[in-house]
Amino acid sequence: MFGNGGRFWRGENGGSGAPLREALETPRRRSRLGLALGGGAARGWAHIGVVKALTEAGIRPDIISGTSIGAVVGGCFSAGQLDKIEAFARSLTRRRVFGLLDLNFAGSGLISGNRLGKLLEARLHDTRIEELTPRFVCVATELGTGHEVWMSQGPVVEAMRASYALPGIFQPVRVNHRWLVDGALVNPVPVSAARALGADVVIAVNLQSDLFGRGTIVHDRSGDSIAEEAVAEAAAGGLTGNAKTMLRRQLIGGSDGPPGISAVMIEAFNIIQDRIARSRLAGDPPDIMIGPKLGRIGHFDFHRAEEAIDLGYEAARRMAPEIVEVIATLR
User: Fold this and answer.
1) Which pLDDT tens digit goes with each residue over 62-73?
2) Strands (DSSP E) along the chain, which ranges?
3) For residue range 269-323, what is the model confidence (pLDDT) as tens digits?
4) E-assigned strands of 61-128?
């Protein structure tokens, strides 16, 4: 009698019959490799370096799951557009970053996101998620219910925009009659999504792993510089006097008073994302964790892509031998 995952094969008269021989002779299925790319705004450019280092080492995932900026990089990689997104990221300057932020003070987010959406559409056109290889899924959060939404089919750009729609910063995105926002609210490092799609081995990239010495709060006021430029542009457009002062106070805050709305939203989101990531990763740990040392890069430092990409590349390159060993053992 031979045990096989809780089932038992027995030949006639207790001997080793055909079912046992077939079970022993059947080639073992190749283990599927999953790559879970976490959220982290500008720190997410590190994902580009991680994917490049893994590819150079001959490590190519069968399944990619992404949250927020992880969804953008993961989707572009699956669509064969990693080189283009890397070139775009490296071309960013502080001024160009601000030029992509279409301010929308009257809507449900400070930024409508249309400029970024059009930029992604120019590269991905009408690509659909179900057409991508490796298989791709990205995570978003449904407003009202708080449900975790996994998008594994439909327009990839629409799914990306929903996944990175940081509440209060970007407007929510309506997908299939649901208003969706940033997936990092519920699943900052989507290991569970990769496993659900069939990954046997999961590599996770956690962009918050080196934020120690600050409890669970990520101190980051990098959004203030973006907000200061918003005030400057508003003034150039004719906003003066009390209106300009009120706008600065709302976005940035006073020197002696409470922080502005942008800093409050960013700090609050950092706390939520960090605590949820710790809980989710403890309950569903990946097989391998890659944690680039990105603590000095702020969430809105999109112009520091070269530094983030290099840090991601080095972190993955150091882990590559261990990853290859784990994959060889399981396959």
Assistant:
1) 999 999 999 999
2) 2-4, 7-9, 33-37, 63-67, 109-111, 135-142, 148-151, 168-170, 173-175, 178-182, 201-205, 288-290
3) 778 888 899 989 999 999 999 999 997 888 888 999 999 999 999 999 999 999 9
4) 63-67, 109-111
- Cα 127 off chain centre by: 19
| Rounded Cα gap, residues 269 and 216, in angstroms | 12
Output the six-digit token pair for 231.
């005030």
Sequence-ordered list of residues with C-beta below 8 angstroms from that of 224, at least 6 positions apart, any chain: 252, 260, 262, 263
Length of the chain in residues, anyone?
Answer: 331
Q: pLDDT tens digit string along 234-271? A: 455 444 555 445 555 555 455 566 766 667 777 787 78
Of 14-18, 36-40, 215-219, the range with the highest mean pLDDT is 36-40
State phi, psi for 91 to the nearest 5 degrees: -85, -10
Beta strands 33-37 and 63-67 are: parallel
Report strand pairing: 7-9 vs 2-4. Answer: antiparallel
Which of 17, 118, 123 is closest to 79 using CA atoms? 123
Contact 156, 124 (CB under 8 A): yes
Q: How many CA atoms lie within 13 A of 22 on its CB side?
A: 6
Task: Write the CA distances from 197 to 60, 138, 150, 191, integer angstroms.
Answer: 16, 11, 10, 10
The total of other beta-carbon atoms located within 10 Å of residue 212's CB is 9
- What are the catalytic residues? 68, 182
* Rounded Cα gap, residues 247 and 76, in angstroms: 36
Helix (H, G, I), strand (E, B) or coil at 176: coil
Query: Do 188 and 38 meet the contact criterion of CB atoms below 8 Å apart?
Result: yes
Closest by CA to 152, choosing from 198, 96, 111, 117, is: 198
Amino acid at 214: R
Distance, CA of 14 to CA of 311 (rounded, Å): 60
Is the entire prediction scored with pTM above 0.85?
A: no
